[in-house]
Amino acid sequence: TDAIVILGAGQAGVQLADSLKREGCDRPVIMIGEETDAPYQRPPLSKTYLLGSFAEERLPLRAPDFYEGHGIDLRLGVKAEAIDRTAKTIRLSTGEDLAFGTLVIATGTRVRVPPIPGIDGPKVFALRSLADSRKIKAALETAKHAAVIGGGFIGLETASAIAKMGVKVTVVEMLDRLMRRAVGPRISSFFHELHAGHGVDIRYGVGVQSVGDAGTVTLDNGDSLDTDLVILGAGVVPNCELAAEAGLACNNGIDTDEYGRTADRDIYAIGDCAHHMNTFAGRRIRLESIQNAADQARALAKTLAGTPTAYSEVPWFWSDQYDAKLQMAGLSEGADESVVRGDPASGSFSVFYFRDGRVIAADSVRAPADHMAMRRILAKPDPALTPEEAADTGFDLKTRM
Ligand code: FAD
Fold first, then answer.
1. 303: CA distance to ligand 1 center in Å?
2. What is the structure's pLDDT at 329?
3. Which segments constitute the FAD/NAD(P)-binding domain (predicted)?
4. What pLDDT is stored for residue 243 in this prediction?
5. Where are the domains of the chain?
6. What count of other Cβ atoms lies within 10 Å of the Cβ of residue 63?
7. Where are the alpha helices (H) located in 181-235, listed in sequence order?
8. What separation in Å is there between the alpha carbon of 270 and the centre of ligand 1?
9. Which fold has domain 4-110+237-304?
10. Could you check whether 4-110+237-304 and 323-400 share the same CATH topology?
11. What is the pLDDT of residue 280?
């Protein structure tokens, strides 16, 4: 067979199927998705959908007739259980062995469940899928107090939606500041103030010791919280077991080169599950973003349609909390200098990050023009922006694009 089989009908899988058709690829495309809901957007699940201002009908990634209309064989409610690289087949939960010519693994991630007694109890909710978000919405109808474990993007977006509904929220963060993995300290403290101003209680440097079936959360400093629901926001783990069991290298994600290819020339991985060679970072990394999932899919579609295309986009990401949009361009990890552009007290500003004098990233709060300019500056082979220029609001960033 010359069929392209895609495992996972999420952001990356759907974009790949769509782009393959746009590239004129006439090979059969079969997409296997474990979930039963038609493929949908995840970002609203912790934001406007949870809040009730984004209707469920608007969540699907494509119109219902899109898949059949484009000759994409979409099979929902079916799980891929094993890959046989020798026979070039996939064992499906239906019992079928599905043959592939090319296999693309786009299985995403799942919520990390920390090893805490009671974490599998009835009041604890993960947030990854539409089904998860529906359950949280239902639990919120009668809730008075919610605990959020983890002060990362999903935890904080959820906290912001819940606080807006008038429900008391306590965020428990093991580290000393918010969104520590992704943003610098100035951004963390801005969002701390924003949440505190909305009545959210944030506890730092403390872990959860146990969760009772009635919703009592005991912290490892002895404090306890009486809650009606607990949201798990302690990160995700990549779904790479299928690849690992088939003998493919996995290191916090499925190892691929800049073309998305694994060590098996007929097997690729894209999206949240891929520990890919990122030409922007200059090393292998795993990203969890719409940008990464969609752009890797577009590049791979070109490659599979006959034009080898390396993935080489500038990483970018966003998060909405209350009425503040945070937009990130580049990767700030490893920065040795940062400057602020604009006045944080005004609620609109950016932080630019540098390493060895070279600009590597910017985080913008309610400053979309700075963000858009930075995406273009970072796309240049040798971005020329200096710290002095970045900090000077009188300096026009466009002259460096
Ligand atoms: P997914 O979209 O997770 O799709 C993978 C699919 O594969 C899933 O449907 C899964 O069920 C399926 N699957 C897994 N294993 C199997 C199997 N064995 N057989 C069959 N199917 C399988 N990103 C942003 O850039 N901005 C945001 O604001 C933002 N907000 C987010 C809010 C929430 C609540 C969540 C959960 C994510 C958010 N993200 C955001 C991240 C973004 O949604 C992901 O980066 C993106 O969905 C990754 O796409 P993917 O296709 O790799 O994985």
1. 23
2. 98
3. 4-297
4. 98
5. 4-110+237-304, 113-232, 323-400
6. 9
7. 185-197
8. 11
9. FAD/NAD(P)-binding domain (3.50.50)
10. no
11. 95
The band of 328, judged by pLDDT with boundaries at 50, 70 and 90, is very high
Output the six-digit token pair for 306. 């006959």
CA of 284 to the centre of ligand 1 (A): 20
Query: Which residues lie with the beta carbon below 6 Å from any ligand 1 atom?
Result: 7-13, 32-35, 42-43, 45-46, 79-80, 106-108, 127-128, 154, 239, 242, 271-273, 288-291, 293, 317-319
Q: Where are the beta strands (DSSP E) in 222-370?
A: 224-226, 229-232, 236-238, 254-256, 267-269, 274-278, 283-285, 316-321, 324-330, 337-343, 348-355, 358-365
- 100-134, pLDDT tens digit by residue? 999 999 999 999 999 999 999 999 999 999 999 99
Backbone phi, then psi, for 370, in 5-degree steps? -60, -45
Q: pLDDT, tens digit, for every residue of 130-151?
A: 999 999 999 999 999 999 999 9
User: Cβ(391)–Cβ(341) under 8 Å?
Assistant: yes
Q: How far does the centroid of ligand 1 lie from the alpha carbon of residue 330, in Å?
A: 21
**Mean pLDDT in residue range 241-266:** 98
Site to substitute for ligand 1 among 107, 148, 158, 298, most atoms within 8 A of C-beta: 107
Residue owning the nearest CA to atom 41 of ligand 1: 289
Q: What is the mean pLDDT of residues 355-377?
A: 98
CATH fold of the domain at 323-400:
Enolase-like; domain 1 (3.30.390)
Among the listed residues 313, 323, 300, the one whose alpha carbon sits nearest the alpha carbon of residue 105: 300
CATH number for 113-232: choose from 3.40.190.150, 2.40.10.220, 3.10.310.30, 3.50.50.60. Answer: 3.50.50.60
Eight-state DSSP code of residue 54: S
